[in-house]
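We now fix the convention by which a protein and its fold are recorded. The integers have meaning only within a learned vocabulary of local backbone shapes. The record below shows the convention in full.
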Amino acid sequence: MQQELALLGGPKTITKTFNRYNPIGSEEVEAAKAVIESGVLSQFIGAWHEDFYGGPKVKEFERACADYFGVKHAITVNSWTSGLIAAVGAIGIEPGDEVIVTPWTMCASATAILQWNAIPVFADIDPETFNLDPKSVEANITPYTKAIMVVDIFGQSANMEAIMDIARRHNLKVISDTAQAPGALYQGKYAGTLADVGGYSLNYHKHIHTGEGGILVTNDDAIAERLQLIRNHAEAVVAGKGVTNLSNMIGYNFRLGEIECAIGIEQLKKLGGYVASRQHVAEKLTTGLSGLAGLRTPVIQQDCTHAYYVYPMVMDVDLLGISRSRIV
């Protein structure tokens, strides 16, 4: 660089304040308005009834998500934290069971395990992708291990081929916490769809959002049924529905409303474009930063894509000659 950096007193390249990013357009406004005008803001009933599965927009959004991600079942919930709690319960985790998970994640990955009185066991991460290291996963398996929770941190899938192989050999279930990577591909399939159950966050700062919310995806009919039960007061439904597997059949109110689902239908249509936009910007950043000593740009696995929830970099502050906090 020929001139002094702005943070050291040099001239600023950007001198204006940008408007807050807003991915909500007129389509979402009209969709939400139509629901409000209908007067049906939610149609769930917490008893065995035709509305146990929610109203028309819930069902439409779930069908759209299942089609988009190429899975048999998509189940909406009111937050991705709720989704993780439901996923852990749906695979049959019980008190004292161990679930291997990464420590390099938002707290809900681990607390969803604790919710069922199970034990999160932390495995190490790959230093390049920051996702779970399959070798560390296998090293942490004990007779009490029942599942692996894989977090697709920052926008890239974990090494699911290796992790699913470990799971098959040890008879373990796999949950894919793909909150930050909707639209990312792993060997031609969407991240989050390769596990027994996975899903995505619809929190306001994610790729697409409904304010708050989450989407669970699975190809397993039994897991899908249990997710639907846990989402909507399972204990009040088991008799009427004729449920005989009562393990963990204590449910919650994890239901997503009609307004959020109407917004989600429109947001889902834009996911591909939003991901492509992030990838375009990330490629320009990678090209522009590639010659800077002391900075490692994102490493992407072969046959995979990155959805860039964030653009993760590793800094060598000695080579850069400046502290991390100063750069931030």
